[in-house]
Design brief:
This protein is of the alpha/beta class. It has 2 domains: about 140 residues, Sandwich (Immunoglobulin-like), CATH 2.60.40; about 230 residues, Aminopeptidase, CATH 3.40.630.40. It is about 30% helix and about 25% strand. It has 8 helices and 20 strands. Strand 14 and strand 15 form a beta hairpin. Helix 3 crosses helix 8, helix 5 packs across helix 6 and helix 6 packs across helix 8.
Length: about 400
């Protein structure tokens, strides 16, 4: 008998303590497509039934725009799993699944109508040790659906452990290699833009790996990636990893596509003033206080104090980010000879909101433009862009170190 739960609860975190989990289950759980279905129980009810080779921890929650049901599982082997084989309903417009982050997998059900979780349970087979996860959902109105959107979890569940530094990270003064953290956008279940069978997550990861190699081979940089494989990393997780790695610079890499209109060329973004102010207030209210400023414990500070301290850090960081963006524009222009009419723009991207790390986002090109897509797949063009970025980082590091020396005098 499935346990009845309140309709207002949209997040389920199930950690099993039976004897099966006392063992070291090294093999990944697999889903039996033949015995799994996503089907209508009635015109108002939907059932998700997944037969698993072994019981695993899971959670369920809702997201909006579009309306979605999200299942997170301890890592699953998706071999043989097929949406067309298990979808038996018109209430689902899209089914996506894949790696979410290290050790976790995700399945996303896009709904044609808003629905809420009604019942959920996992039954374990006594003979084979397999398990069946059954979740039932019922139709609701848009207002009630929106009221229950969100993972509703403790902040930072997927983040690395807070760094243990007791002193703030010192600004670079040119006496050591510059630490550059490269952030290939998207990954795992989040493919980013798609065009002609190409995925943004793959193209930017390839570029990031090539840029990392060039930086390390120069001997003047230490370079790291926020992800080095096809896995999902949350936006806050990317920044936290950069901070954990001691980043002097954070560079997010993307290659978007437009559904309409025309755009081409490389664009460099830094954080806008308006977004900076909003970011400080949001971070002070929502984020893990031990992970807001490197080496500064804000856990016992009020929102107002935390906001002021972050703004003090951001005033300095923003001017450094803007200078870096300008120099990347100049370096890339020298290497490829042509950029967009306005190559340096300002925006409120989440990955630019670290108050203590100079951060930029480079839109390498637009996959919706055939010329840009060809460039992204061209090793020679990628190398030209990389040489421009390396030149910019060299120039910026010298100027930034000189400014730091002046501040110390």
């Amino acid at each position: 008998m499935l346990e009845k739960i309140a309709v207002l609860v949209t997040l389920i975190v199930c950690l099993f303590t039976n004897t099966l989990f006392a063992q070291d289950l090294r093999a990944l759980a697999r889903i039996d497509t033949v015995q799994s279905t996503i089907a209508d129980l009635s015109y108002r009810d939907l059932e998700v039934k997944l037969n698993l080779s072994q019981p695993i921890p899971y959670r369920i929650f809702l997201l909006s725009e579009p309306n979605r049901i999200v299942f997170d599982f301890k890592e699953v082997d998706w071999t043989g799993f097929s949406a067309k084989d298990i979808l038996l309903t018109e209430k689902v417009t899209e089914l996506r699944f894949g790696a979410f982050q290290a050790g976790w997998s995700r399945m996303v059900i896009t709904l044609s109508e808003p629905m809420l979780l009604d019942k959920v349970g996992m039954l374990t087979g006594s003979a084979k040790g397999d398990a069946t996860l059954t979740a039932k959902f019922k139709l609701t109105n848009p207002e009630e659906f929106l009221a229950n959107v969100g993972a509703r979890e403790d902040a930072g569940w997927d983040l690395p452990n807070a760094i243990s530094a007791t002193l703030p990270k010192q600004r670079q003064i040119g006496d050591r290699p510059l630490v550059v953290v490269l952030d290939p956008g998207h990954g795992g279940i989040d493919s980013g833009a798609r065009q002609d069978g190409k995925l943004e997550k793959d193209l930017v990861l390839l570029f990031a790996k090539e840029l990392k190699d060039n930086l390390i081979l120069s001997g003047r940089f230490k370079a790291h990636l926020t992800r080095d494989e096809d896995t999902f990393v949350s936006l806050s997780g990317r920044i936290s990893k950069a901070r954990e790695l001691g980043a002097d610079v954070f560079i997010s890499l993307h290659a978007d596509a437009l559904k309409s209109g025309w755009a081409t060329g490389t664009t460099v973004y830094s954080l806008s003033d308006e977004a900076s102010n909003e970011a400080s207030a949001y971070l002070a209210e929502r984020q893990d206080r031990a992970d807001l400023l490197s080496g500064v414990d804000l856990s016992k500070q009020s929102d107002a104090v935390a906001t002021v301290l972050m703004e003090m850090a951001r005033v300095e960081t923003k001017s450094r980010s803007d200078l870096l963006a300008d120099m990347v524009v100049s370096g890339v222009a020298q290497s490829v000879g042509r950029l967009r009419k306005r190559p340096h723009l300002f925006a409120g991207f989440s990955v630019l909101k670290a108050p203590d790390i100079p951060s930029i986002l480079i839109e390498l090109g637009f996959m919706s433009n055939q010329s840009d897509l060809n460039n992204l797949m061209n090793a020679e063009w990628r190398q030209q862009i990389i040489e421009g970025i390396v030149l910019a980082l060299d120039t910026w590091s010298v100027e930034d170190a000189a400014q730091a020396q002046l501040l110390r005098q």
